[in-house]
Design a protein that fits this description.
Blueprint: E1 21-25, H1 38-51, E2 55-58, H2 70-84, E3 90-93, H3 99-112, E4 116-120, H4 129-142, E5 147-151, H5 153-156, H6 162-168, E6 174-179, H7 184-193, E7 200-202, H8 205-213, E8 218-221, H9 228-239, H10 243-259, H11 267-275, H12 295-307
Parallel strand pairs: 1-2, 1-8, 2-3, 3-4, 4-5, 5-6, 6-7, 7-8
EC number: 4.3.3.7
Catalytic activity: L-aspartate 4-semialdehyde + pyruvate = (2S,4S)-4-hydroxy-2,3,4,5-tetrahydrodipicolinate + H2O + H(+)
GO molecular function, one term: 4-hydroxy-tetrahydrodipicolinate synthase activity
């Protein structure tokens, strides 16, 4: 029996610890000719480990999964697991608007040793609530890998409603939810209604601090790509209930959290990382370079956060 054939408990990494804290929604470095820059990808993973990031989420929205073919998608999952080498958990983006495709990606992630999968609500085809419940149940019943639901209606149009989440939380193998609605009222409702063993992760940097103080297990973060140590400090303070430290740290990141969404994610964050020398500014169409009129605003937000005297 291989290590990846061992059953896993929901919400747990392969090393036995709960996945929590600062989880970077990692970008996918690319080259100007449309290729994937694997050297930069590996270097980013090492940097996040060094900076204290608690887990790495790959090939999700920020990783431009929509423009990757199946072979590239799988390759990036495998490389992330290999590069992380057990130092931090790896959450593999395995969602799709086809249940069969989501199962195929999830099974591959299980096979190569990912700690969990992150499965976005099916997009474009606008499934009903019953269709989404069946979609996720089918994945969980087919693949022995903890599955984290990912609700981001601003991207998918379809919205996984409260009652559907509560039903899915009872399905063995479904291990948590990333709530990227940015709606604190929705998040706190779920935190009250879900079992304590079913983690909720913020997927919205601007509201993550409040949601973690209310009980969320962590933040799957875009901003962590730029300031991983600062986001780690914020998540640690929030999970410890240190409201004063959270307020100071969150204030230091507030402008940057907004600036990284002046255009569609991951356009601004890749522009910043290119300025930082960590990758080339390259995307795949239909995404393209950050409009120059936003350059000053975004970079000033980065400098303001980096020059802040709060501990990082």
């Amino acid at each position: 029996m291989h290590a990846y054939d061992l059953p896993r408990q929901a919400g747990m990494s392969r090393s036995g610890g709960a996945i929590a804290g600062s989880i970077v929604a990692l970008v996918t470095p690319m080259t100007p000719d449309g290729g994937i820059d694997l050297d930069a990808y590996r270097a980013l993973i090492d940097w996040h480990v060094e900076q204290g990031t608690d887990a790495i989420s790959v090939v999700g929205t920020t990783g431009e999964s929509a423009t990757l073919d199946m072979e590239e998608h799988c390759h990036l999952i495998r490389i992330a697991v290999e590069q992380a080498a057990g130092r931090v958990p790896v959450i593999a983006g395995t969602g799709g608007n086809s249940t069969a495709e989501a199962i195929e990606l999830s099974e591959y992630a299980r096979h190569v040793g990912a700690d969990a999968s992150l499965s976005v609500v099916p997009y474009y085809n606008k499934p009903t609530q019953e269709g989404m419940i069946r979609h996720y149940r089918k994945i969980a019943e087919t693949v022995d890998l903890p599955l984290i639901l990912y609700n981001v209606p601003g991207r998918t149009v379809a919205d996984l409603e409260h009652d559907s989440v509560l039903k899915l939380a009872q399905v063995p193998g479904i291990a948590g939810i990333k709530d990227a609605t940015g709606n604190i009222a929705r998040g706190t409702f779920l935190l009250r209604a879900l079992p304590a063993s079913f983690p909720l992760y913020s997927g919205d940097d601007a509201t993550a601090a409040a949601l973690m103080l209310a009980g969320a297990a962590g933040n799957i973060s875009v901003t962590a790509n730029v300031l991983p140590a600062r986001m780690k400090a914020l998540c640690d303070a929030a999970r410890a209930g240190d409201a004063a430290a959270v307020r100071r740290l969150d204030d230091s990141l507030a402008w940057l959290n907004r600036a990284l969404f002046v255009e569609s994610n991951p356009i601004p964050v890749k522009w910043v990382l290119a300025r930082m020398g960590r990758l080339q500014e390259a995307y795949r169409l239909p995404l393209c370079e950050l409009d120059p009129r936003h350059h000053a605003q975004v970079w000033q937000a980065v400098l303001a956060a980096r020059e802040d005297l709060l501990p990082v």
